[in-house]
Design brief:
The chain is of the alpha+beta class. The chain has helices at residues 65-72, 78-85, 129-135, 144-149, 153-158, 202-223, 235-244, 261-277, 291-298, 310-319, 346-352, 359-379, 383-403, 418-427, 430-433, 439-448, 462-469, 472-487; strands at residues 6-9, 21-26, 29-34, 39-44, 47-56, 89-97, 102-106, 115-119, 122-126, 174-175, 180-183, 188-191, 227-230, 251-257, 281-285, 324-327, 409-412.
Length: 488
């Protein structure tokens, strides 16, 4: 994977001959970045900030990457920097470098990935693990337990290659998780502090979230000529539809139709919404992946994912030729995706997330819990929400954002903002956040787009009625495994 990727190292012997890469030096680090990746830098005296990707100030939506990075230079300490970043949105990795500090931090959801390998005093850092392998002329090192997962229908198709730790396929590389920063000078990763006031009233939080969402949408319309927003029967896409309503004439609303039961349901609801709110809407029917795409796609990843949604990537690669942005959700855990009671033991967590009870998974959760529990207590967070934020968003959701880099399409969630996330998690009571009714989400939508909640959310299909009259929860895993084995 080269397109839209970056590489950072303090090994002066490393060079990149590929002419599609540009270079930049700061202190003893050399930075290489692909020509299609937004790159912004600024410095005062010995303090440098380098930004890969785009950053948005939802309080000043007209501000550019350069203006925001220049403003961040005013912050001379870790705490000042992190407090300022908490308010910002975007899809980025930020490198903050001075004689006293060498810090790397991602956007809230780590949509812009960061892999790193420390070998003695040398660091190798990139958004792509395969780029690390290529530039360092390495072959993958994959532990036996991971090789077994390469043959697992459950892990590849249902768990979707989602490792439950900072590790991924190659044993040497670690991934910086959301809610963390990499401190190179002190050779450690730590969780970010949270500055959100946890004693705000619901009305104030509602107004603040609506403002941030709409201002983020405004910033996107100022930066991109081609904006795509998928509509489904779910809550996240409806929330983004409501937030985007003031700029609906600049946005291409769509839905991918694979012909599956729940997708057919989504198409019906999306069509109703498009008609009711007079949207520029298109239903896109997807074809199966071609052998040519599969071959090219496989070269970009250590173990490529071939899922139903991979067809979305293939369609974008074929049909989108100029820089564009696709606005996605990412708010499931803000509505209580997991039940907190299922996160009281490792065995319960394994069951809740539908994983095999094997050492590679249980050991990873045990290690994560050891550091997560004190942090959750300090900030009064639910373990289930923190798990979703750090491990599910950082290791599962971010894969799709990274995979889209082979196209001209940029994936981005307008909910990708720490202030927005923690304002909700710390101030909105669980019953008002949680599915199936999610009253807080409904309030947000109606405040931005009246009548946006009148069309049903996720109405039941014939499959749901069948599931309600059989012990589906007992056979769900076996049924899905059988379906994937047949498709393979």
């Amino acid at each position: 994977m080269k397109r839209k990727q970056y590489f950072i190292t303090n090994n002066q012997e490393i060079t990149v001959s590929d002419k599609t890469f540009c270079s930049y030096s700061v202190l003893n680090y050399t930075i290489f970045y692909h020509e299609d990746l937004d790159f912004t830098s600024s410095y005062i005296d010995d303090l440098h900030i380098v930004l890969f990707g785009f950053i948005i100030n939802p309080y000043e939506p007209t501000h550019s990457n350069q203006q925001i990075v220049d403003a961040l230079l005013k912050h001379k300490t870790q705490e000042e920097l992190f407090k300022a970043l908490e308010l910002l949105s975007g899809k980025y990795v930020l490198f903050y470098v001075s004689k006293n500090e060498q810090i790397l931090v991602t956007d809230c959801f780590a949509e812009r990935q960061l892999y790193y390998w420390q070998k003695e005093d040398l660091y190798y850092i990139s958004s792509s693990d395969t780029l690390l392998l290529d530039l360092l002329d390495l072959t993958p090192e994959i532990a036996t337990a991971k090789k077994q997962l390469k043959e697992s229908t459950l892990f590849l198709n249902i768990n979707e290659h989602w490792f439950l730790s900072e590790e991924d396929w190659d044993d040497r590389f670690k991934k910086l998780l959301p809610n963390h920063f990499l401190d190179i000078k002190r050779q450690e990763t730590k969780r970010l502090p949270i500055f959100v006031n946890s004693k705000l009233d619901e009305h104030r939080v509602t107004q603040e979230i609506q403002k941030l969402l709409k201002n983020t949408m405004e910033a996107i319309t100022l930066r991109y000529d081609a904006i795509y927003l998928p509509i489904t029967a779910g809550y996240d896409s409806r929330l983004l539809l409501a937030a985007s309503s003031n700029w609906k004439d600049k946005i291409k609303y769509y839905i991918f139709n694979t012909g599956k039961t729940y997708v057919v349901r989504d198409v019906k609801i999306a069509t109703k919404l498009a008609h009711y709110f007079q949207l520029n809407f298109k239903e896109i029917k997807l074809n199966e992946l071609t052998e040519g795409f599969k071959k090219e796609y496989s070269d970009y990843f250590i173990v490529p994912r071939f899922l139903s949604k991979t067809r979305n990537i293939a369609w974008f690669k074929t049909n989108i030729k100029k820089p564009s942005i696709n606005l996605s959700g990412g708010g499931d855990y803000l509505r209580g995706f997991y039940n907190e009671d299922d996160f009281t033991s490792i065995k319960k967590i394994i069951s809740a997330i539908e994983y095999e009870d094997i050492p590679i998974h249980t050991d990873a959760i045990k290690k994560w819990l050891t550091s997560a529990i004190p942090y959750a207590k300090e900030y009064n967070l639910r373990i289930s929400d923190l798990f979703y934020h750090e491990l599910r968003m950082g290791k599962w959701a971010s894969k799709m954002y990274h995979e889209s880099d082979i196209t001209a399409m940029e994936y981005f969630s307008p909910l990708n903002n720490r202030h927005m996330v923690y304002s909700i998690l710390l101030n909105i009571p669980e019953p008002k956040r949680h599915a199936p009714t999610s009253p807080f989400y409904r309030t947000l939508m109606e405040g931005m787009l009246p009548d946006s909640t009148t069309i049903p959310f996720n109405p039941k299909t014939w499959r749901d009625y069948i599931k309600s009259i059989i012990p589906y929860h007992l056979i769900k895993k076996q049924a899905r495994l059988l379906r994937y084995r047949k498709s393979n």
